[in-house]
Amino acid sequence: MTLLRIDDLTVTFQGDEGLVTAVERVSLDIAPGEALGLVGESGCGKTVTALSILCLVPRPPGRIVSGRIWFHGRDLLSLPLAELRAIRGRAISMIFQEPMTALSPLQRIGRQLAETLLLHRPLSRSEARRCAMDWLRRVGIPDPPAAMQSYPFQLSGGMRQRVMIAMALMLDPELLIADEPTTALDVTIQAQIFDLIRARRRSDTALLLITHDLGVVWEMCSRVAVMYAGEIVETAPAADLFRQPLHPYTAALLASLPALVPPGARLRPIPGQVPSPLAYPAGCRFRERCPLAFERCAEHPPLRQAAQRLARCWLVNEDPETTP
Amino acid sequence: MPPLLSIRDLRTWFPIRRGLLARTVGYVRAVDGISLDVAERETLGLVGESGCGKTTLARTVLRLDPARSGEVFFEGRDLLRLSGRDLNCARRRLQIVFQDPFASLNPRLTVMDLLTEGLLHHGLIRRRQKAEAAAALLNDVGLSPDALHRYPHEFSGGQRQRLSVARALSLRPRLVICDEAVSALDVSVQAQVLNLLLELRERHGLAYLFISHDLSVVRHLSHRVAVMYLGRIVELGRASDVIERPRHPYTRALVSAIPRVGCDGRSRIVLQGDVPSPANPPPGCVFHPRCPCAVPRCSQTTPPLEPLADEPDSGRLVACLRAAEI
User: Fold this and answer.
1) How many domains does chain B have?
2) Where does chain B have alpha helices with state H?
3) CA A274 to each of CA A228, A277, B122, B161: distance values in angstroms, whole numbers, following the listed order
4) By the 8 A CB rule, do B209 and B58 touch?
5) What pLDDT tens digit does each residue of chain B (326 aa) get?
6) What is the ipTM, given to two decimal places?
7) CB B115 within 8 A of CB B97
8) How far apart are alpha carbons B268 and A306 in whole angstroms?
């Protein structure tokens, strides 16, 4: 069963130096209640993919060139704004990396939370405030009545992110999109936030977690999609991906983690750099950095299926039964 | 042999000024009584969360921030009491690599000028030797000499960080302070820069004071590790001891908070609350309001940083009243 299906999504941006293809022909499924991790290094297109789901890509300079995003049989990309607004924040909600830019700096926390509730639920103002206060308590804010009266700048980064989580979860969304929700926070606060998302997310709420931290994916996600240079290069159940990555990029990414080699030993970085999005090379985009590249890589590989997994590499044997 | 760098009871307090006359109404105690040694060729990792004072400590050592009290001996001389020519001379041997390679390189200088600015300032080379000296430095950090006449914006983050390292090395320092030097980089590029730092350490016999919030990076590079919390050191010892067998409750929580591939998060110690403000640190042990092991006396007595009774020879120091029992 599929809750959300991204189908052949391509997004471009008109930059000063030319047309940038941020996301190219990305397809992705999320099942109800599933926790899917979308990982990749900066600039790989993971945030643009997430923003596209709620039609939050700024247009212009962005342009959705192709693709559909199916949610309950409707294409979110061609929905009238009024219907889209009914979905945003209620059926699908989002937590951003920097809560300071996602919350209004001019309104008290209580008012912002209550307003979100009033927009989507038939509640009276006082009921909405009570519900908001209740949620602030549930996300572990020490003094909810005081927090209701505070402006975002008066709270710490961790507290602001808790407010965002309350706001994102209080309408029982079917899908929670979290875009690097803890990257701006310290590790001990990150631990609190993930603990909270785990505890407060209802079992049928799906999670799309965008991160560059493979450790976070390991801990939070059951399935992973890896992006490189605007494309999905591998999707797999998390345990399989970490045990045996199929795409050479995924393997190289895991090998470059300092935690996985003995201290002081040489790490194995990925040689070279990510190709410029202004001019992706023909063929496999990882080819120039790939230790296993061969002639066929000059031809652009499709996502090839092996068991429950997909990998964009010619070396993946499509039928796992015949692998020696 | 005396240590290369010896910090003694260093305090850096920033005044909080209020009102029309800007009266000092209090102090932010960014660094509050820190003592540390870095030996020749040693890498000391300094870890802690944002706002704990790691960067202020580095900046105070370099005299970029004013110390309130304490001593900083480098090659036997107290940097805090040097001035003019002597300070200039000492700084040559003590360099820093900053976190943001986009902000720390002058965008108007070519790579050649960036790398040789220090050499010219200290009169170590003549103008006509610039190209040669800069090319040698580029070679040292694995960049091609084509880079000489280019500007910083033409390089990627990882390459810029190599330029920052090359600039720091230009004066043949003995100690390089790396302040979150790889934190802004993606993991694949971060690995390249970490390898470079390891290579240079061997090739030039460098000592590093390696500041980072990323414990896995610190563990990888450091011989010893110091853990800071709210302006103080709470634990100090061999990297393997501190990170694999932490004894201070804060270090334990910090180590357990890191999500790692292959470890499950169930044994995690989730701390309650936020880091208190260094303008108003709690009495007694600064960690006691968040500490899962705190007892009443923790809020009354400031624990000294001292060796553990059960491992007196490990060199490990812990600032916890209950270190022996927990």
Assistant:
1) 1
2) 54-61, 84-92, 111-121, 130-140, 157-169, 187-204, 215-221, 239-244, 249-257
3) 8, 9, 38, 16
4) yes
5) 789 999 999 999 999 888 888 888 889 999 999 999 999 999 999 998 888 899 999 999 999 999 999 999 999 899 999 988 899 888 899 999 988 888 889 999 999 999 999 999 998 999 999 999 999 999 888 888 888 999 998 888 888 999 999 999 999 999 999 998 888 888 888 888 899 999 999 999 999 999 998 888 999 999 999 999 999 999 999 999 999 999 999 999 999 888 888 777 667 888 887 788 888 889 999 999 999 999 999 999 999 999 998 888 899 999 999 998 88
6) 0.79
7) no
8) 35
Inter-residue contact B261 to A37 (CB < 8 Å): no
Question: Is B135 part of a structural domain of the chain?
Answer: yes
Tokens encoding B181: 């030097």
Q: Is residue B319 part of a domain?
A: no
What pTM was computed for the model?
0.84
- Are A29 and A5 spatial neighbours (Cβ–Cβ below 8 Å)? yes
User: What domain range includes position B126?
Assistant: 5-222
Residue recorded with tokens 């049928």: A204
CB contact under 8 A, A187 and B213: yes
Q: Answer whether residue B96 is part of any domain.
A: yes
CATH number at B58 reads 3.40.50.300
B313 at the A interface (CB within 8 A)? no
CB-nearest to B254 from A187, A213, A256 is A187
Check CB contact of B112 with chain A, cutoff 8 Å: no
Strand, helix or coil for residue B2: coil
Beta carbon pairs, A and B, within 8 Å: 112
In a domain, B287, yes or no: no
Q: How far apart are alpha carbons A236 and A252 in whole angstroms?
A: 16
For residues A71 and A54, give the distance between their C-alpha atoms in angstroms, rounded to a whole number: 11
Residue with tokens 């985009």: A285
The residue type found at B319 is A
